[in-house]
Design a protein that fits this description.
The chain is an alpha/beta fold. It has helices at about 15-25, 45-55, 75-85; strands at about 5-10, 30, 35-40, 40-45, 65-70, 90-95, 100-105, 115. Strand 6 (about 90-95) and strand 7 (about 100-105) form a beta hairpin. It is globular and about 45 Å long. The two termini are about 30 Å apart.
């Protein structure tokens, strides 16, 4: 068995595509309107489709999972965050761990938790 993708529910597809492209460099591989596959295996699905498929409410900002990214140049990434055209909601401010790694946690526009660490 092989894990193929990670799917997250989003309320505004274009806003989410812009967010992941601008800040993380992810590109659209396949666009089927309500389902968009990005590089690195991230799939964005329109929240209404996901809600209908599950027949349950979507719980944004549930903090039960996160998308983990590694970034070699945290200073450049922080510049991207500060220059981004929408306010970023931070969960954990820039922190330096005992190992010397730097990390920051934030939410995407739909409350999906993201962690970025240096390698």
């Amino acid at each position: 068995m092989k894990l193929k993708n990670i799917l997250i529910a989003v309320n505004n597809m274009e806003k989410s595509i812009h967010f992941y492209k601008s800040l993380f460099g992810l590109q659209v591989i396949l666009d089927n309107d309500a389902n968009v596959i990005l590089t690195e295996g991230l799939v964005l699905q329109d929240a209404s489709v996901w809600k209908d498929a599950l027949n349950r409410d979507i719980l944004h900002r549930n903090n039960a999972a996160l998308l983990y990214f590694e970034e070699r140049d945290m200073d450049t990434f922080l510049e991207k965050l500060h220059a981004y055209d929408e306010p970023i909601q931070y969960v954990t401010p820039l922190t330096t761990l005992a190992s010397g790694q730097k990390l920051i946690r934030l939410y995407d526009p739909d409350g999906n938790l993201i962690e970025v660490r240096t390698s």
